[in-house]
Design a protein that fits this description.
single chain; 2 domains; 205 residues; Nucleotidyltransferase, domain 5; globular
């Protein structure tokens, strides 16, 4: 609910692919923060770590017109264009993984072959490496946000009671939602709708 959406990429030579498991690469969700940080550091020796952070206001603009998948597709394409791999393995952001891959290849161009799968971060170590890059840099962005804030933010995720309390403080008072909060997120919208109704009565003698 808080902070940027971070899309991560990792680019290495085909010769390095068999070595990624030995470096400790897994789907980032299966690693502790300390393990992710350690693997993230080791990845620099075998390839290029890359990421794009999308601020909440941009997320809100796309979600407002039902285009979150479109935003992710465009961001994936930016990574492919910047890194120019021969083959891009991607975790599909569409119910139809093949369609996502075809659209990505068309936007990115450059002759890159796209392999698009659901749960690719679990099945392909190179995508697992990209997921680690994204998670470490997202955690870093939240840490900087917490350091600059004058209130408790928590982790930024809906499962966190501190984060939910932070959202409630802003979304329920009728004030301006801060730029670091994803106003379009369903969990934020539910808090806004839960605001008690207020009435105004005017008496004219």
């Amino acid at each position: 609910m808080l902070g940027p959406l971070v899309v991560g990429g990792f680019c290495c030579s085909a010769d390095e692919l068999p070595n990624l498991i030995g470096l400790g690469v897994r789907d980032s969700k299966l690693l502790s923060p300390a393990q992710r940080d350690a693997v993230y550091g080791r990845l620099a020796a075998v390839g290029k770590r890359w990421s794009i952070a999308i601020p909440p206001r941009t997320i809100d603009r796309y979600v407002g017109r039902g285009g979150l998948n479109e935003l992710e597709l465009e961001t994936f394409a930016r990574l492919v264009i910047q890194l120019r791999p021969d083959v891009a393995y991607v975790d599909a952001c569409d119910t139809n993984a093949a369609r996502f891959g075809q659209r990505l290849a068309a936007i990115a161009g450059s002759g890159t072959r796209v392999v698009s799968r659901h749960k690719a971060d679990r099945d392909f170590p190179v995508v697992g490496a990209a997921s680690i890059v994204a998670k470490v840099r997202r955690d870093g962005a939240l840490a900087r946000l917490r350091a600059a804030a004058v209130e408790t933010l928590g982790s930024g995720y809906p499962s966190d009671a501190e984060t939910r309390s932070c959202v409630e403080r802003h979304a329920r008072d009728g004030g301006q939602i801060p730029s670091w909060m994803r106003a379009s997120w369903a969990t934020v919208q539910r808090v806004k709708r839960a605001r008690p109704a207020r009435t105004l009565e005017i008496y004219v003698p």
